[in-house]
Every structure is written in C-alpha cells, then in structure tokens.
Amino acid sequence: MALRRTVSVAGIGKTKFGAFADRDLRSLAVEAGNKALADSGIGPDDIQAFYLGNFAGPEFTTQNHLAPYISTALGMTGIPSTRFEAACASSGAAFFHAFLAVAAGIYDTVMVLGVEKMTCQPVPRVTEILCGAGDCGAGGEMAAGSTFPSLFAMIARRHMHEYGTLREHLAAVAVKNHANGFLNPDAQLRKLITLEQALNGRPIADPLNLYDCSLVSDGAAAVVLRASDLCGPDAVQVLGAAQASDYVALDQKRTITTFPAVQEAAFRAYSMAGVGPGDIDFAEIHDCFTIAEIVATEDLGFVEPGRGGFAVFDGETSRDGRLPVNASGGLKSKGHPVGATGVAQVCDVVRQIRGTAGDMQLAKHGIGLAQNLGGSGASCVVTILGQSGRGEGRVL
Amino acid sequence: MALRRTVSVAGIGKTKFGAFADRDLRSLAVEAGNKALADSGIGPDDIQAFYLGNFAGPEFTTQNHLAPYISTALGMTGIPSTRFEAACASSGAAFFHAFLAVAAGIYDTVMVLGVEKMTCQPVPRVTEILCGAGDCGAGGEMAAGSTFPSLFAMIARRHMHEYGTLREHLAAVAVKNHANGFLNPDAQLRKLITLEQALNGRPIADPLNLYDCSLVSDGAAAVVLRASDLCGPDAVQVLGAAQASDYVALDQKRTITTFPAVQEAAFRAYSMAGVGPGDIDFAEIHDCFTIAEIVATEDLGFVEPGRGGFAVFDGETSRDGRLPVNASGGLKSKGHPVGATGVAQVCDVVRQIRGTAGDMQLAKHGIGLAQNLGGSGASCVVTILGQSGRGEGRVL
Q1: How far is it, in rounded angstroms, from Cα A170 to Cα A184?
Q2: How many Å separate Cα B363 from the centre of its chain?
Q3: How many other C-beta atoms can be found within 10 angstroms of the C-beta atom of residue A393?
Q4: pLDDT surpassing 70 at residue A394
C-alpha cells in the first residue's frame, strides 16, 4: 500500500550513556526529549503523539505506564502516549510505527523516545531481566539454564563450524568498535584495546569473553519526526523502514547462523528506499555481542554469507574501510541501554549524514542504515536514512 | 488529517476470564487469537501486522518480548509484531494504533490481541505490580503508601464531597454489574448480590469495600481488523477511536473527580464518528472500581457532572435503562485481566451489535461505545462501533 509522503528527522537528542547512580529513568528521558525538541526548533505543543521505546522499565525500576509518565514531564498532555516493547528493538519498533503514522498522514509531527535505566539492579538481576527476551516457558531455553551470552555463544560456535569464522574475527569486532567509541565523547567505555586483549578477556560463555559482550547502561535518545514538507530542505529523510519478527526460542529456528527477521526487514527497507546494500555508505549495527555484528553484516547483504568475520578482520568495516560499521562505537563501546538503542542508532546515523559527527565523522556519509535487533533475532527493525528522498514509498 | 477508509471488525475471540492454574499466558493468547481468526474466516497468513496489548507480563510471568512469542505460536512469522503498553489501557492502545494503520491504508488486515496472566502471583505481589501504573518515583504517591484501591477511594471521597454522591450509589454499580455478569457465561464471578451485601463488603480502602473492586484475572481477547471493503456488509465498523493521556500521579491533577484524558478521547472519538453521547445505545465502561464507572459516565457525557451516582442508582444504566452500561458484567463481574480488558470490551460491544450476545443481548444495540482506562486516568482509549459507517474519518 502506497504511503502518502516522505518523513524527515527534524531533531535528535541523546544523553551520555553510562552508569549514572544519581539519575533516574525519567530524568534521562526528559533530557533526551528536550534536546530533540531544541534541535528541531519546535515546542512540546507541536507534538501530536508520543512513541516510547522501553524494554523492561518496570522490572529495572518498578515504574510502569512509562509513556504518559515521561510525556507529561516533557510538557505534553492530552496526546496519544504509548510504550512500545520488542525486547532490545523496543525503540526501533516505536520509531517504525511513528514513521508509518507520519508517512500515512495520520500525524504531521511526533516524538519517538527510547530509554532504559539498568544499572540500578545488580548484575545477576540484570541478566535475569534480559532473559525475559528469550523463551522463559516450561521446557524453554531459559528454563534450561541459558542466558543471552550463552545463546550467542552457540550462534558463534555454529558460525565458526559452518564458515570457518575464527576467534580472531570476533575479537576484531571488539577492537574496531572500541577504537571507534574512543572518538565518541558520549560513549560509556572509551578505551582502546588490542587484538591480544580482546582475545584474552575474562571467559563469559565460550567462545565469548568479556570483550565480546555489550555493556549494561543507563541512557536515553529521542527524535522528532515530521512530514518532510514541514522541514527544511537539508533535513535527513527516512528513505525506508521496516520491522519483522521470527520465533523467540533459538531452538525453534531452522538455522542459527542467519536471522530471517533481519533479512526480511532489510529486504522491505531496501525496497521502500529503492536502494540496495551497495548503496549504503555506513551502518550502525546491533552488536549486542561481537558475533551479532558479523551475522548482521551478512543478513543485511553487505557481505556474502559466512564472510562477515573475514570482512571485519580485513578492515572492510573499519572507519576507513569500504563500509564503516558502528562508527559510534556500537553497543560494545557506546553502551546499550536496551530500550534506547534503536533510536540512539538513528541519532548517530543522522549526525553522520548531517556532517556533524565531530571526531567520528566519516568521509562518505550520504546514506546510512541502522539495524536494531530484539532477543536472539525474533524482532528486527531496519531504517535507512539519507539527505534526499529516493524511496518508492511502498510498505511491503 | 483525513483517513482513507473505514475499518471493520472482521472477527472476535475471547477466552473465559478467571483463575486458571493450568493455563499459561501464551495458551490463553493463542486460544483467543485462533478464535478471532476462525470467526473472521481468514488464516494467519492473511495477518499483516500483530498488535499485542499487555501491561505486565514480564513481572507476572517473567516472559517479556511477548509479541513475537505469541504471534509465532499463532502461525504468523515475519510480520511486524509489537507489544503496546498503556497500563490497564494497553490493549485499547494496541487497538487504537491498529485501527489507525488500517484506516490510513498502511495495512489491510491486522490482529489486535490483549492478554494478562495475573493469578500466578500472590495477591500482595499483584497489588505491587499494579502500583507500577501509578507514580512510583521518589516522593510519589506509591512511595507514600498508596495502592490503586486507595487512590480510587480518594476519588470516591472527593466525588461524595463535591456532588453528594452516596455510598449507596457505589453499591448500585456493583449490584448492577453483578446482575449483568450473572447472564455472561464467560464471566469470572457469576453471583447476584443485594444492595445490602454490596454495602457491607469487607473494607478495602474507605469508602471502597470488596464489592467496589474489580477482580484479579487471567484471560485474553482478540479481534481481526480489516478495511471495510474487504468485509461483508454486515461487519461491525469502527466509527471512531481515540487515545489520550494525562499526568500519572493523582496529586498532579487539577481535579480528581473528572479525568481530562477520558473527556479528550471521548471528544475525539465522537467527532470522528460524527455522533454525540445521545446517539450511543449502550457502553462498556472501565469499572476497575465502582467510582470509576460513575466518573466515566460523566466524562463521556452520558450524564451531567456529578449525576453519575444518581443515574446508576435510579436504574438509568441498567440493562433495561436509558443507556445500559456494562451489560457484560464489566470488570467487576466479568473479570479484569488488565492487558486483555480493552480488546475484550470491543468484543463485547461487537457481539451486542451483531445481536449474538445471548442472554446478555440488549434491545437497543445499534451503536456501542467502549472506554478503556489506564492508571488513575493517565491513559484512555474510547472506541465507538456500529453497523454502518457514519464517521467523518478525521483524526483530531
């Protein structure tokens, strides 16, 4: 079905990511929301609907009913205000629904905000809460003792078996993303690491070690989306966006070295944008674990299946490579407040396209892609952004 | 902004509501979803997007990421599958967003499903989880020791003070809804009570007693929404739908005897449908507490402010009254699996309009209204349904 019009990102706003003992969930969200309003040059009265992405605020902080809790604190009352949850793709899902609503002409101006406050809980409880994104049913993977590191360890092990991916390839993702995050003033962990260090991190779930895992973080990110004709000619446009789903339990999937939801979302987003993987200049990819970035580069069509590990090791996805991936530092270095990540990726892509990414700025930054994953591949949102509309405007 | 087309309810499906020790959340959801598919005569492959309403599944059952967890079990993979949360209006919010997507032409056919599994937790923990829908921040109402019964007790006390509402008026809501629920084979509590009994229930939060409070329930409800031109001429149409928001904390509101979010959602839904309160033949209203039904009849414009208690006491909202309210038994007798309630109300309205409500069938059933409330009025969804389109098709 044809969409009516193109949609642009009128403003972006992000908090630093990190462990902030003195900040509660709402204060982070309000900071990001106000920054996005200021960046877009509009006031809270102009926002017609509020789309909140949050994975597990009630479990981390006891506060539920978070959408009006946050939107009223931003000065917005009366409007539809709703929380969207799709595990770690929660704010990606909120963004996708908000984009469709503006593209279809339901609203002219909306805010999408992602937030998570995780460091208020001890690590074992954080792990337990994150397990909720997998299959917690009787006889399911979590009842069997899995955690997300162990699920992605199985994915890594299988990828090694099928394609000859090496432990060094995983380490190369960590080295690259730490190097990129070192240039990001808002990153949680600004620390250069060597391949040697990345190979010898504290064991977590073999073959994954500490350096293969993303961070436990507090943070928020927001965007204002508007009909493009209400924005200036330089506003970054959403060229394509798509969300797809798949089985939650790893053991229900036919293969675990590829994620059909990523492939499906990518196919639809590329089709809507009228571009292919070869047209993408740079990407922010959901590297919750190093292996996840490797698999995603394959599922997004950036490299042939099985070549993701070799590509990162060979520098193809480095800052100065053919297709820079996670110039922001990724979830690995920038941080991963799960409900904020999807919108944060969009903010990072927009800053690159605008040419205002500071030390992180890439040479080629015309068209960028953000890929936000939920669980072990059961949810995925892919968003393609660029300076000028090239899309066909179809929802496939 | 004008919507493109009208939307109809192609199929409905509900589980019984109750305490089902042998049923998990997903099995309830799958039962309701499959019934809605069967009722609509389509298969899972025809569903283009899945909208799940659920308030607190992760806290009640540990399972999060519920949308693909349920949609894949219904045989739907690949499609956008997202959970919507707006406290007790969660599935109302899911319905509203799904309705807009079909009305705007984004999708032709979608499923909206609401579910909650509550009885697996002991009552004190249930109360604690429900508190998440209020303000749990430092210095907030919940930190001060409130619970939802105590918040609505304050609303009742103030309503009595301002308008002369009597304890007998609250009791009359309970007597009416229990009498209605006695006719509903799927109700959780089929038990006739007298005014005397309703006045002398076990104290909960003065002036509310046990009979003023809705139930802790397990249950699910689902609808298939389609573009009207894909449905038969007899399909029940969504004439109007709107969602609105307000402050979460009771102490932030200017008045607590009226809910601006309900008034706003009602105004927008009436405007979209091109009808007024006088055109509504019957309503399903969010009677989480007896006082909530009284306030809602005022905010929806069915009676003058302050007359809600008198109206129910005088029988105006009884089955044979001027405007029957909660012919299903309401949350009070039918049960209140919070995330399921919004869609369950829509199912009950559709059955009345179809004329297939069995012993519950009302004489006048042309246009029905469903009102779904979240928290102490911070979220509200109002939906107006009828056999033929009268709407202007505008989103206000």
Answers
A1: 22
A2: 22
A3: 18
A4: no
Q: Strand, coil or helix: what is A242?
A: strand
- Could you tell me the domains of chain B? 7-139+213-386 (3.40.47.10)
Strand partners, B209: B203
* Active site (annotated) includes residue A88: yes
Mutate to test the interface with B, among A82, A88, A116, A372 (most CBs of B within 10 A): A82
* Cα distances (Å, whole numbers) of residue B226 to A230, B32, B49, B171, B219: 31, 17, 11, 40, 24
The first and second tokens of residue B103, run together, are 């009305």
Are the beta carbons of A104 and B108 separated by less than 8 Å?
no
Q: What pLDDT shows up at residue A233?
A: 85
Q: Give the side-chain half-sphere CA count within 13 A for B44.
A: 16
Instruction: Give residues with Cβ within 8 angstroms of A130, minimum separation 6.
Output: A56, A147, A148, A338
Closest CA to B218 of B89, B94, B126: B126
Distances in whole angstroms, Cα of residue A354 to Cα of each of A6, A42, A272? 18, 19, 22
pLDDT digit string, tens, across residues A11-60? 999 999 999 999 999 999 999 999 999 999 999 999 999 999 999 999 99
Q: Give the pLDDT band (50/70/90) at residue B1.
A: low
Residues paired with B14 in a beta bridge? B221
Residues in B closer than 8 angstroms to A375, CB to CB, are 65, 68
Q: Do B131 and A62 touch (CB under 8 A)?
A: yes
Residues A197-224: what's their mean pLDDT? 98
Write out the DSSP string of B218-265: EEEEEEEEEEGGGS-TTSEEEEEEEEEE--SSGGGSS-SSS-HHHHHH
- Which listed residue (B97, B286, B336, B365) is catalytic? B336
Q: Hey, are the CB atoms on A86 and B65 less than 8 Å from each other?
A: yes
pLDDT at B249 > cutoff 90: yes
For residues B347 and B13, the answer to whether their CB atoms sit within 8 Å is: yes
Whether A374 and chain B come into contact, CB under 8 Å, resolves to yes
8 Å CB contact between A44 and A275: no
Quick one: average pLDDT of B314-325? 98
Distance CA B166, CA B244 (A): 30
Looking at residue B203, what DSSP letter applies? E
Phi, psi of A50 (to 5 degrees): -120, 125
Is A72 within 8 Å of chain B by CB? Answer: yes
Task: Write down the pLDDT at residue A122.
Answer: 97
Mean pLDDT over all residues of chain B?
96
The ipTM, to two decimals, is 0.97
The answer for B 222-251 residues in CB contact with A (under 8 A) is 242-248
